[in-house]
Amino acid sequence: GQNIDQPTEMTATEGAIVQINCTYQTSGFNGLFWYQQHAGEAPTFLSYNVLDGLEEKGRFSSFLSRSKGYSYLLLKELQMKDSASYLCAPFRGSTLGRLYFGRGTQLTVWP
Amino acid sequence: DSGVTQTPKHLITATGQRVTLRCSPRSGDLSVYWYQQSLDQGLQFLIQYYNGEERAKGNILERFSAQQFPDLHSELNLSSLELGDSALYFCASSPLDRGAADTQYFGPGTRLTVL
Known about the structure:
The complex is a heterodimer. By secondary structure, chain A is mostly beta strands. Helix content of chain A is 0%, strand content 52%. In chain A, the strands form two sheets. A five-stranded mixed beta sheet of chain A has the order 1-9-8-3-4, with no helix packed on it. In chain A, strands 2-7-6-5 form a four-stranded antiparallel beta sheet, with no helix packed on it. The model of chain B has no long low-confidence stretch (mean pLDDT 92).
């Protein structure tokens, strides 16, 4: 299996910062995707990390540590519209384009 | 709007029936992927096509089949439907099929309800 592990649920308040962690199996690892999915809607691409370190993109940043099999998504200045499921998907070249998604972390942002 | 279109948006049918879901990829994308998302299973990869040829298979049942046509649109056929097939079915597309990471863009999905 892919052994992708994310917390099932998280809550935070508007304006706060939240960090969503993801751990995965490191064998054959090439990079890691993060997607956002609102209930009943399509997943939308947030970020792709292939190198170690933090990549910032507006209010969202994503971090990767390849040796530790660890990534996190950092969401700053939370807004109500950020309430969604966040899916972590490690990519392995051996599986061609196929992505294996974690179960997702359901984030609820309270006013 | 990702540029990927799927029809129909909703489908309600009975057990034992057969349905066809349709997907049109983003302009220029050669790869099409199908995923199933049910409440208890998360987002599961079913199958990938690249430029008309099957490239990878995931947890796709034998009752399910897919194809990609010369104009690159794809269809997912589900037959002998069971209650457990009720789910959201997503299609995604990406430009290439090179074994390297290629961002996938998802369509809005088809919600299938089997009664």
